[in-house]
Structures are given as C-alpha cells and as structure tokens.
Amino acid sequence: MGRIHIPRGASDVMTVLALDGFDSYVVGGCVRDSLLGLEPHDWDICTNATPVEVLETFAKRGVKTIETGIKHGTVTVCLGDAGEQYEVTTFRIDGEYSDSRHPDSVSFTPSLREDLARRDFTVNAMAYNEVDGLIDPFGGEKALRDNEISCVGNPADRFREDALRVMRALRFASTYGFSIREDTAKAIHQFAPRLSNIAAERIQSELNKLLLGSGVLQVLLDYSDVMAVIIPEFAPCIGFDQKNRYHEYTIYDHIVHAVANYTGDDLSVKVALLLHDIGKPQCYTEDERGGHFHGHGVPSRDLADIVTKRLRYDNKTRDEVLTLVLYHDSVIEPTYNVVRRWLNKIGETNFRKLLQVRMADIKAHAKDTQASRIERCLALHDILDEVIAQEQCFSMKDLAIRGKDVMSFGVPEGKLVGDTLRHILDTVINGEIPNEIEPQMQAVQQYLAVCAHE
Ligand code: ATP
Ligand code: MG
What we know:
By secondary structure, the protein is of the alpha+beta class. The strands form four sheets. Strands 3-4-5-2-1-8-9 form a seven-stranded mixed β-sheet. It has a two-stranded antiparallel sheet with strand order 6-7. The protein has a two-stranded parallel sheet with strand order 10-11. Strand 3 and strand 4 form a beta hairpin. Helix 6 packs parallel to helix 8 and helix 15 crosses helix 16.
C-alpha cells in the first residue's frame, strides 16, 4: 500500500487545531487514494472541535474561514499564499433519512469511530494522522488490497438511507476497476429504483466519473438495471437481439463495449457513445437478410436530447453530444472535399470527436466487419490532419474575399451578398477554385451574372 503524506497546508491546519487541544485527521478520499498510490485531489479533515470552535481557532490567528455548511459541521479554512482551501468537518452522526437523500438532522460526536461508521464504503471510512497512524475500523485497507467495494455496515440499510450511494458504488468500482462485494451488489440491485428520488445533478456527476473509469465495461454490463433506472430509455435496448451480421452483441451490450473502447478523457465523447444507439429499438425492421435500423441516428439524437436535458448536462456538452449521436453513423467518404464539407458543417473539434466515436463504435461490431471501416476512419484522420495543417479553407472566416468585395460589384447590402459568399465558399470547399482573391472575384462576377438572368 502507498504511504500517506499529508501536504503542508493540511498539516498546518491540523497543527493549529492541536494548539487549541483538538484532535484532527485527514479522512475519506485522500486516505483511500494515498493508500492506492494515487495523488489525492483534495484533503478533507475531520475533527472533534465543533464548527464554532474551528471558526474561533482560526479567526483568532487571523486565518480566513468560510462558513461552508455550519449546520452539517463543515468550515472551510483558507491557508497559504495560494489561498488553498481545506474543508474541516466536525465528527458527526447522520440522523434519519426520510427521503433517501438528506439526513433529517446531523449531530456532532466526540467519537471518530462513529463518524467513520456513517460513511458509505469501507475504502472511504479510514482516517489518518501522524500521531495515531491509520484508523481503519471497518477493514478499508484490506478492501483496497482485495480490490473490493463494500458498504460500512448493513448494505440494505445504507442504500435505503441514501440511494445516491448506489451510483457511488458503481462509480468507485469503475474508477478503480474494483468488484463489488456480493452482499453490497445484491442490495444495489434491490435499492436501485430509489435512485429516481435523487437530484439529477448528483446522478450526473457520479455517472460522469463512472463513464470515465477503467472498469466501466464490467460495471455497465453487471448493472444494466441501475442504468435503466437513471436512463429508462435504455430498457428496450437491454437484451435486444440485433439479428444483423455486423453485430454479435445486443444493443445494450454493443453500447457498453463502445463506451469502454474509448479510453480518452473527453466526457462528450463518452456520453455520446453511451447514447449513440439508444433510439435503435424505435426503428427496427426485419427482412430476409436480418434486422435493420435505418436512420437510427435521428431517434437516438432525439432521445439523447431528452436524456441529457433531464440529467442537466450543460448546453455545450449537450450540443456536442447531440451532434455526435446524430452523425455517428453517417457515410463520410475519405476525400478532401468531403472532409472540408464536414469541417464546415460541425467544426474541427466536433469532427475530431466524431472520429473517436466512430472508431469506438466500429470496434464494438462483429470482428470480421471491422477492418475496412477502421481503414476508412484512419484515412479520414489523415486527411483531416492535412486539411488543418495546410490551413485549407472550409469556413466563411477563412475565405479570401469578404462581403465588401461582393458589394464592389454594385450589390446592395442584403441577402444576395450572403448567398454569393456561400456559393463561393462551396466552390472552394469542393476544390473547384483556390482560396485566392483573383479567381474568387471572377467567380463572383459569373455568379452575379447568372443570378441577374434568373
Ligand atoms: P472523490 O475522490 O471523488 O472526492 P471522495 O471519497 O472524496 O471521492 P466525496 O464525495 O468528496 O468523495 O466525499 C468525501 C467522503 O465523504 C467520502 O470518502 C465518504 O467517506 C463520505 N461520503 C460522501 N458521500 C457520502 C454518502 N452519500 N454517504 C456516506 N458517506 C459519504
Ligand atoms: Mg473528495
């Protein structure tokens, strides 16, 4: 197991608390990640000082504090020149959860063990300080060694209290490639329906981490029922036999393999892969050659629109996801003209993401159908890189001429100017004329002459 090295700022916070006679520990995710040999992204501190005592301890030494969640026991301490922030939370016990979401009340306790006992999973229920070393009453370190997620205490009780833990269990399993212990897994299946009471933002945040985790394949395969709770549109995809020579998987299993095939860290690509075929069941037809899903990009996009809105994805992510889903299956010939046209239509960033989506999708198809499609995808990539490197023109802003050039032929400001520029851009994208002023002015003249005749 890795060692726990408390960074300077957190250690200073703990030293100050000790000066006033309080105990404190780093706790939760930072202990877990340190033991795994990973760099923690934040250091949470827990203490037997009450929130008011924490405020006083730092205020009297001129250290800035923020009353983050006094009711829940959390004070943020701002230390150091870089304004680093540390959350300091009083040991607490959560009260009843009548809504599977928030504890109705919390009460403070002098006992670290009681604080650890309210935490969700054994790997998250460890604390550490220099004096006492690792405090691990529930076997968190062993669980890390066994690559296992298991609840602290009775799993059914824990998921009944807070259904978000269902998503958190899947998220940790995916992030670390861990398995979920049998009793915990059973309770997840049992309590998954209660996720429908949980705020969409919180589900989205766990889902994103789940999707980006290295163990996503196994988690999504094992917990399709959970996915169908948070995204009910998946229900018809699960177990759907595609009866098609391109596919050896059901729709859902194909989707999951495609998600796992993309190992980059772009969330839009991951979400697009998750939703790329979600509309397939709606457009299934069958003939003597088997099953078909003609035009499934459109219903998939429409469902992706509904799903991403419900899960409260931001507009930029949604726009990207919808574009990627709509075009994931479009025929794109690997030629310069076609690539420039696509760049004009969706832009470089989305086109690059689209190629990622297609590659991951193709690799989740039947093995004997992949080779030629992978070749085409690679060829598109090469052409794309070349078009960009050569700064070839594919958008209005790259065009050699401007509106004023069109108007120099006596065209008044208005629609015809835009139409003319658009026509010239099309001819440049198609490779008919170069992106230079002279030939474009000639083409403008010809176009205007044709327009005058019509
Ligand atoms: P991350 O690396 O994503 O920050 P984390 O484990 O630190 O992971 P947080 O959401 O920051 O996760 O929560 C901090 C700690 O609080 C957890 O390690 C866990 O001990 C506890 N915790 C968080 N959410 C819950 C919950 N829903 N139920 C019980 N304990 C929780
Ligand atoms: Mg954390």
